[in-house]
Amino acid sequence: MGQTKQARNQxxxxxxxxxxxxxxxxxxxxxxxxxxxxxxxxxxxxxxxxHGVLEVGFITTANKLFAKTVTVGExxxxxxxxxxxxxxxxxxxxxxxxxxxNSQLQGTQVIANTLFAAxxxxxxxVLAKAFRVGNEDIDAVKAKFK
Length: 146
Fold this sequence. Notes:
By secondary structure, this protein is α+β, with helices and mostly antiparallel strands. The chain is built from four helices and nine strands; from the N terminus they run αβββββββββααα. Strand 4 (53-59) and strand 5 (65-71) form a beta hairpin. Helix 3 packs across helix 4.
C-alpha cells in the first residue's frame, strides 16, 4: 500500500499533478482477496466499483462498524483517518475498484503491522493488556510479522 512506485513515476511524468492534492489507484481483488485493515491518516477515500462485488466498511471513533456490500457502478466513502476494516471479496469472484483520495500522499498505516512489527517494537506487555491476552500470545503474533 502507500504511494506505489507507479504512482511516484506518474508524478515525475506529469509533474503538474504533484501539487493538486489528489491521487487515484486501481485495486484488483482475487476471489477471496482482502485489503488488510488500515487507515489513511491524510485522506478521505472514495471507491467506485468497476467489476464484481465487495464488502466494504470502516470503523468510527465510537467503535461502530459501518459496512455495506457494493457492486458494479456503486460508490463508497471512507472518512479521513478511519480504520478501513474491509474491503474484502467474500466469494463472489474477482472485483476491481477505482479509488480516489483527496491527497497526493494519503499515507497508509496497516493496523496489524503498526502494532506487531514496529521498530523498535511495542512492548509485549503493553499489547497483552490492550488485547487482554498473555505476553506469550503477543509474542506468537509478533513472530508472524518478522
